[in-house]
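Researcher: Last one for today. Full complex below.
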Amino acid sequence: MTTRPTIPRRSSLDQYFARSLVFLLTIAFAVVTSDGLTAEVQPARTERRVTRRAIENFTLVDQNGARFDFESLAGRVVIVSFAYTTCVDICPLITTALRQTQIGLTPKEHTQVELLTVTTDAEIDSPKVLNAYAKRYGAEFDNWAFLTGSPAALGHVWKNFGVGVKRRARGLIDHTPLTAIVDPTRLMRFAYIGPSPDPHVMLDDVRSLLKQQ
Amino acid sequence: MDLLYAERCLNCHGSGGRGDGPLAARLPVRPPDFRDTVERKSNNQIRRIIAEGKGTMPAFEPALRPAEVTDMLQMVRFLSREGRDVAWWERFDTLVVAHCNIPWETVLGYDDKADDTTP
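Model: Here's the assembly. Have a good evening.
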């Protein structure tokens, strides 16, 4: 090693912690508007909200590079989460919760329920990157798709679900920590806003929707 | 380098690299204590983990420049020594490296060239 690392400014850690504090306060008081999805979000807690927000159809690209139409899931209950692969904050917890939910599904429910992870980072999360990410979590692809797309296409989906996304730096994104359950009529029925949606609660909510079919 | 660690690593690995960051207890697998695991790994092995990820740890290669991955590796080596903390970094960096012209490898306690040929 011949190069010497650059000398950081003394205040760099202070700057980081100050920025983190601002971010956490922002999340803490974030308001997701419309359709009763108004919530004060505590960063350490996950709020469960009952809602009836209509979700429009959208088209993205899955972890294999194939075109994905939300419409193709008609008649199924869909769990949708928003995450990005280089997140070192809430996304690992959310994706872990989704994996635990997938494991908790019975074989029959496996065919009735679809899981979607929509990236909040179009810049980095290509299909190949998402594929590797999904495999690290042990995701089974038969009912779980990891979706990306152009910034415009993703922006449409984020808006559709009421998810705010703000890029801080390459691979560092602030976004609404939303996991949602959409019923077969394309209404978002449950919204979990926070880092740790409870897989047991999500499974109960999924089953309540399956019973209504 | 300390800012890079704070932004990308500290949440899980903790300020001292002991696997006790704010997020650690809620992960399915607790992050390792660098003091127990880093010494027996080559630089290439550590670089690969940083670049490609492992379990819930992100793959940083798409987000970081190679020099930043090297900086991360240096910080991991630095923290793998008993009693070190990310807050000490500036003290080491400013006092030892900048003013005393001590080889960086001596401060970190490893020789980067020694295992760079490890596949």
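The helical segments of chain A are 12-28, 91-104, 107-112, 127-136, 151-161, 199-212. The longest helix of chain A spans residues 12-28.
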